[in-house]
Amino acid sequence: MSMRGANLLTLEGMGREAILDVLDTAASFFDVNQRTVKKVPALKGRVVASLFFEESTRTRLSFETAAKRLGADVVSLAVASSSVKKGESLRDTISTIDALGLDAVVLRHRSSGAAVQVSRYVPHVRVINAGDGQHQHPTQGLLDVFTVRQILAERHGVVASDSGSSLFQGLRVLIVGDIRHSRVARSDIAAYSALGAEVRVAAPGTLLPTALDGWPVTVANNFEEALAWADVVGLLRLQHERGSGSFVPSLSEFTSTFGLTMERVALLKPEAIVMHPGPMNRGVEVDSLVADLPQSVITRQVTNGVPVRMAVLYLSVAEKKESL
Amino acid sequence: MTQDENRQDRQRGLAFVVKSQLLSADDVSRAMKRMAHEVIERNQGLDCISVVGIQRGGVAIATQLAAMLSSIGHVEVPVAALDVTYYRDDIGATPLKDAALTTLRDDLTNRTVILVDDVLFTGRTIRAALAALGDWGRPTAVQLAVLVDRGHRELPIRPDYVGKNLPTALSETVKATLEGVWLGTGATS
């Protein structure tokens, strides 16, 4: 289902063409971000509200930068100093902000399904999910596949936006760590598999979801073998705030069994791509030195966040709404 | 048929159906040479000229014009592609168009820009291009070269160099490339 003129709540079921539409549009915005004047008037005069009910550095900065580079005005709610602290409900907070006149809401919330709820409260406003609990983080999934396609296109000497999903055919993606609590894992799995990549997950049994039925993934029996197998390794943050600490005997045990240590880096293919959505727990899921290796594309992921989010906002908000 | 209905037809992607060929490839080539000479005559040299083609139809024509200028004037005339999708005034009013590549990298401050498109119609694409060019600096001047001027302007925009003036009905469409110019109906790209 195309996201033109629509909400972006989940990558689940979004489909290959709709994802490629975002990636190709993002490629043109990547170009805008390389210019001296990194701004286009595509959403001039539109209002985008940035509502982060949960902490965030890069997603929030990235979304707000994206909205501003499209010429939109950004209304930003600092939750810590808002009436939310007096006990105002999500619905009332949204209604209040909506009364100011909105075109889009970018929502981060600790509850899974919050973005879907908000989209029901304000059906005339486009809702972009910037992470809801353990459910989905669609723009992270999109920027991860955008980054992988960009790197592979460079290596093959082709133009990424002409390559469609061809570079993902047969691509081996390994996602490691706290799958159970990770919305990034859920979005990444949906995005990679929609584009035709083969996805494996590696985690301690306790950090896998209780049922993997219906997920288009296989579970790696041996982490070391899976590292040697993978073209792309997606690391996940151990989510202390969702109680991950109690799912492993100790952090050091997690590191010694499923952390990407310098010893394990030696098992990787030389051309493997190592990703992390940030923020990193250096020394837990990833050795401090790994983040700075040539295979690591973590800062590139952050850079690509802006054009991908520009594409999402543009396609969602700029397209004339048919049904409303 | 109103101009808006005509646009909707083109957006619906009705295929271009040729009614008549108006210029052959040779005719286009002669018109391009004349325009190249007019550019040189008017600007007294080519040292500060940058050619910018508007995506998508204007790029091939701009590339050819720059090659002709370079060969006549014996100087390298830079040429680049400009996509104006994100500067259009119909964003939100019509289905979104896909953006094409912008290759323009140079600062255009103190350059004379020859803006090139295939067909000049309402002038709205040119308005978008002028808005976009402002993001690349402050050119000394911007001059407009089009292969075909088909009339029906909606904005006060006038070309400086015209390959062929072509009176048309609103219901018609014009396809203008280096290979020839055709009058017909339906979408041209």
Write the layout of secondary structure elements.
The complex is a heterodimer of chains A (324) and B (189).
Chain A: H1 16-32, E1 47-52, H2 58-69, E2 73-78, H3 90-98, E3 104-109, H4 114-121, E4 126-132, H5 138-156, E5 172-176, H6 183-194, E6 198-202, E7 217-219, H7 223-229, E8 232-235, H8 251-258, H9 262-265, E9 273-275, H10 298-318
Parallel strand pairs in A: 1-2, 1-3, 3-4, 5-6, 5-8, 6-7, 8-9
Helix pairs in contact in A: 1-5, 1-10, 2-10, 5-6, 5-10
Chain B: H1 3-11, E1 17-23, H2 25-43, E2 49-54, H3 57-73, E3 79-82, E4 112-120, H4 124-133, E5 141-149, E6 161-165, E7 173-177, E8 180-185
Question: Which labels suit this protein?
Answer:
heterodimer; A: 324 residues; alpha/beta; Rossmann fold; 2 domains; five-stranded parallel beta sheet; four-stranded parallel beta sheet; 9 strands; 36% helix; globular; B: 189 residues; three-stranded antiparallel beta sheet
Give a description of the structure:
The complex is a heterodimer of chains A (324) and B (189). Chain A is of the alpha/beta class. Chain A has helices spanning 16-32, 58-69, 90-98, 114-121, 138-156, 183-194, 223-229, 251-258, 262-265, 298-318, and strands at 47-52, 73-78, 104-109, 126-132, 172-176, 198-202, 217-219, 232-235, 273-275. In chain A, strands 7-6-5-8-9 form a 5-stranded parallel sheet, sandwiched between helices. In chain A, strands 2-1-3-4 form a 4-stranded parallel sheet, sandwiched between helices. The two termini of chain A are 17 Å apart. Chain B is 29% helix and 27% strand. Chain B is of the alpha/beta class and 189 residues long. Chain B has helices at residues 3-11, 25-43, 57-73, 124-133, and strands at residues 17-23, 49-54, 79-82, 112-120, 141-149, 161-165, 173-177, 180-185. The two termini of chain B are 20 Å apart. Chain B is built from 4 helices and 8 strands, in the order αβαβαββαββββ. Chain B has a single domain (22-173), classed as Rossmann fold, CATH 3.40.50. In chain B, helix 2 crosses helix 3. At the A-B interface, helix 1 and helix 10 of A face loops of B.
